[in-house]
Design a protein that fits this description.
Elements (H helix, E strand, L loop, with lengths): L3 E5 L4 E6 L10 H16 L5 E6 L3 E3 L4 H7 L4 H19 L5 E5 L2 E3 L1 H7 L3 E5 L3 E3 L13 H19 L2 E3 H6 L5 E3 L4 H13 L3 H14 L4 H16 L2 H12 L7
Parallel strand pairs: 2-3, 3-5, 4-6, 5-7, 6-8, 7-10
Antiparallel strand pairs: 1-2, 8-9
Helix pairs in contact: 1-3, 8-9
The structure holds ligand A1D88.
């Protein structure tokens, strides 16, 4: 039985749903494989314009499957390394999606569940949701999610929430730059619908390049950033999308994106 659902509507909005509610969507090996495959498939699907990451049940995601982790205790070092790479790989596949990734955080997100939130471009959470990096309570560490969390909140705040494993509310998650905003539960679907709309009127290639460029610029010195930006814009000027978008402006019509 599949632990992931992928549904794409006529507008090109794909919803990737964690479907393991009875285990609070804990990330088992099977689920991570399915999630990674789904993300890689969506990345290649030119009809998909936006991806929404959602979850069944009351919990968004309870993190890595602790039963799967317990199996690692008696594995040899090489197998443990392969398995510990699994979380990094699935987070990487989601992070690398060329389309905007919107998190629909309908409930609590713990451990690796916050990792999923941290690879979203935008994440809207319900105001009652609780989040926390609970790994250190379990004698583990939030390792593979570290790079994404560090980029969002900086080393000082990341160390504090990692070391203390304290649970915090959705409003604090906004201040920590994990969630983009909070809404009441009943308003969540409307908020997600409103969130995806602007992307649908933009050129898909330009959206993907804007996302890639911002990531590429991060951590570089200013002169390198400027050089990369010049190259990116020069490439864009050669694109059919730029011809269509600018042409449509002067023709006073809506652009048509292929
Ligand atoms: C590198 C490390 C990365 C990580 O992500 S480490 C994992 C971090 N995650 C956590 O610390 C969360 C662990 N889970 C919980 O604290 C609780 O659960 C919840 C708060 C999410 C929900 O509590 P409640 O409503 O009382 O439900 P319930 O009876 O605890 O759970 C129902 C079933 O779900 C299973 N489950 C929940 N979380 C996980 C998990 N992370 N891995 C594996 N199974 C999990 C339980 O065991 C149980 O199962 P059964 O019905 O068979 O007894």
């Amino acid at each position: 039985m599949s632990l992931i659902r992928v549904e794409t509507d006529a507008r090109g909005v794909a919803t990737l749903t964690l479907a393991r509610a009875e285990k609070h969507n804990a990330l088992s090996a099977q689920m991570m494989t399915e999630l990674e495959d789904a993300a890689r498939g969506l990345a290649k699907d030119t009809k998909v314009r936006v991806v929404v990451l959602a979850a069944d049940g009351k919990t968004f995601c309870a993190g890595g499957d602790l039963a799967w982790m317990r199996e690692q205790f008696d594995m040899d070092a090489e197998t443990r390394r392969v398995e510990s790479r699994r979380i990094a790989t699935v987070l990487g596949a989601l992070y690398d999606l060329p389309q905007p990734l919107i998190g629909r955080v309908q409930g609590n997100a713990l451990g690796g569940g916050v990792g999923l939130v941290s690879v979203c471009d935008v994440a809207i959470g319900v105001s009652g949701a609780k989040l926390g990096f609970t790994e250190t309570r379990l004698g583990l560490i939030p390792a593979n999610i570290g790079p994404y969390v560090l980029a969002r909140m900086g080393a000082t705040r990341a160390s504090e929430v990692f070391m203390s494993a304290r649970i915090f509310g959705a409003e604090e998650a906004v201040r920590l730059n994990l969630l983009s905003r909070t809404v009441e539960h009943d308003d969540l679907d409307a908020a997600i619908d409103a969130e995806v709309l602007p992307y649908l009127s933009c050129a898909p290639g330009a959206v993907a390049e804007a996302k890639a460029l911002m990531r590429d610029l991060a951590g570089r010195v200013v002169q390198e950033q400027v050089d990369l930006a010049i190259d990116a814009l020069a490439r864009r000027w050669q694109s059919d999308e730029a011809r269509e978008g600018v042409g449509a402006f002067f023709d006073k019509r809506s652009p048509s994106w292929q």
